[in-house]
Input
Amino acid sequence: MSNDCLFCKIISGEIPSNKVYSDDHVYAFHDINPVAPTHVLVITRKHLSAVNDRSEEHEPLLGALMVAANRIVKQLDLEESGFRYVINTGSHGGQTVFHLHLHILGGRPLAWPPG
Ligand code: AMP
Ligand code: ZN
Output
């Protein structure tokens, strides 16, 4: 828990969110500013600042994050149409919240490359 972290406050319930999925390692909710018909954020319950955060628990948590995301795309019926996972990291990556999160985007064709 990091005191002034928005996503830690979402996990604690201090800031409300629209829950999609929860397990021992991660919590998932709808993005407040969706950029696709489905836009879900999957966050680790433990505060890691980014995907390359060097915490001891880091490596198993990355697996848990991906496994949970795969469950969520199944739950949301995105498997057949397809989807995209995004982990923005650092300044050039466009990261704005410094608590590890994976975006699940789906529900329309997504352009490539990103802007
Ligand atoms: P990033 O730019 O990759 O760090 O993603 C941060 C995401 O958090 C953005 O897509 C925001 O729309 C989303 N976001 C910020 N505040 C909230 C909130 N209170 N509830 C849900 N999503 C949020
Ligand atoms: Zn946090």
Notes: The pocket of adenosine monophosphate (ligand 1) is lined by residues 6, 15, 17, 31-33, 41, 88, 94-97 (CB under 6 Å). The mean pLDDT is 96. Residues 6-106 form a domain with the HIT family, subunit A fold (CATH 3.30.428.10).
